[in-house]
Amino acid sequence: MKTKNLLITGIFAGLLLSCKEAEPPIPVLPVPTPEQIEWQKMENYAFVHFGLNTFNDLEWGYGNTPAGTFNPTDLDCEQWVRIIKAAGLKGVILTAKHHDGFCLWPTQTTEYNISHSPYKEGKGDMVRELSDACKKHGLKFGLYLSPWDRNNTEYGREGYQKTYHAQINELISNYGPLFEFWFDGANGGNGWYGGANETRSIDPKSYYGYESAREMIKAKHPGAMIFGGTAPDIRWIGNESGWAGETNWSPYSIEKEVHYRQNQWGMKDGEKWLPGECDVSIRPGWFYHHREDHQVRTVPNLVDLYYRSVGHNANFLLNFPVALSGQIHPVDSARAVDWYHTIQMELKENLLASIKPKASETRGGSYKAANVTDGSWDSYWATPDGVTSGSLTFPLPAGTSLNRVMIQEYIPLGQRVCAFTLEVEKEGKWTPVETSDTLSTVGYKRIVRFKTTPADALRIQFTEAKGPLCINNVEAFLAPPLLEQPRIARNAKNEVRIGVESEGADIYYTVDGTEPTPGSAQYKAPFTLDKKGTVKAITYDAQSGKSGPIAIRHFDLPAADYKVVSPIDERTNLMFDGNGYSTYYLPEGQNEITVELAAPHTISGFVYTPNQGRDSQGHISNYQLLVDGKVVASGEFSNIKHNPIEQEIRFAPVKGQKFVFKATRTVDNVKQVGIAEFSVITED
Length: 684
Ligand code: FUL
Description:
single chain; alpha+beta; Immunoglobulin-like; eight-stranded parallel sheet; 10 helices
């Protein structure tokens, strides 16, 4: 009897123990809200920048452009939505008001709105049209409402907050449902401000009343993610180039004073769940400019950004600068749809589907290793309490090769993994995969790209984590090769170099303006181009008979034609060396260069390139160009701080030989002016 009792007690205790072991791991704080999880699962969605800037060829309208210039002739929000859907994007965020203050809906708060434009004879409402189109086609809808308003008389004073909140109220009451609300952080200070034409500075932490704005929005749209401001749900990734750090923690502490660059990595010990969003435009600018019709991002470039955003535990926000007609330009739409299909193709066949991995250790109960390949997001493999490292080994069928691995953590319990390794077994030997990626964080999704390798088995070793491991999905793929667009540069010695990242691709080029084909000259070594000319190049894969996207580069006068008269400094040659990173910094206190060309030319524009280094300084924000003593161009390089692209300025052609390029203001008013590259555009 006694033995029997003991046995029963033993079984009972054993049961209790296994039940205990089968309990879920306790969360590692912070954890996301259910709404943040829903948002993260969207992964990719669209941005649309459209407004007065579109019609005035501007990036940052000053606030004084007449409302009457807003005049789309063929506006069709359903066209946008159809393209956005075909590109696999799950929603769209519209710039209801950009920094110029012009409102795309008939607001009661200012006359500077669509009802004072010729569009639909003043009866139009773009926010309504897009909101309706989204509903009709099953896309999510979001809004961008710029806090900085260069039109409003009251901006910088007390009264503006009321106006801004009234605008929010109109938007949240009349349109939606909204999945995201964007508070942009940009503020250049100066503006029209009802005719004052001055610089007004504010403290963004207190001026806009972000906390109460958040409450207003959340009361009507509880699921809406707030971007920016002082009480956000998601964070800017710290660049406008569409990528997140390889190490990317969703936790973050906004209270900490850190450089904005920290946004790309998040914070391992961050107090709040604040996942990253990577915004980027499909063209160099955010708004449409005809001159950028040939600068739409290529498919390989967009694919790369997908891996560096969604594949780095962040969401991807892809902007379409809608054209003057009111429709997405055909090149942009073709690229975006092609991009989506390429990713679908790259990640088509999951080589691990239904393969049962072997785990180093398992928590027991339902937390088995097979959960990582069962296709269910909510089932996960977990290690016992106290076990913060472990491995998963996937046997692979003979003849398998792979070059992509996707890993997902079960984020409702927090982000845990700090470091991991990826190895393949070949003929009984384990070797790490060949990748340039830092294998650190995982989070919601991490995709690692590596050199194609044959493998009899794949092993993931999680070597460090903030708690027991909770992995809900692992996939692997063999993506077909994707041909890149070559990069073309000419240095001060007039040598043209053409290059690609990937090894082994053949490059063909032309210098006579014709389209390059595999029958054109093959690039083997740098060649000389000592005059004006256009180089076009492609990559070509003889095996598949396919070529990559064409690269086109126009070169104007060669470096030797520029003689810098002032300042006299041997480093001035850095401005003409074809390298956007090597920068000439003018001596402190000086703000202009004087250049004499080798001969007189008909000049119709110039190109200024700020230092391409991510955290560089000295960017010129306002400029003047004088040719033979006369001012031929002056203005602003809008948004150059966070989007430091080449700035091309055109003007009525003038004949001249000597010019002065002057910085009338720098970003953040730094004292040293930086010029990475400078060239004039000539017509002869
Ligand atoms: C920036 C703005 O200044 C740009 O014009 C654009 O709207 C981008 C998305 O955000 O801060």
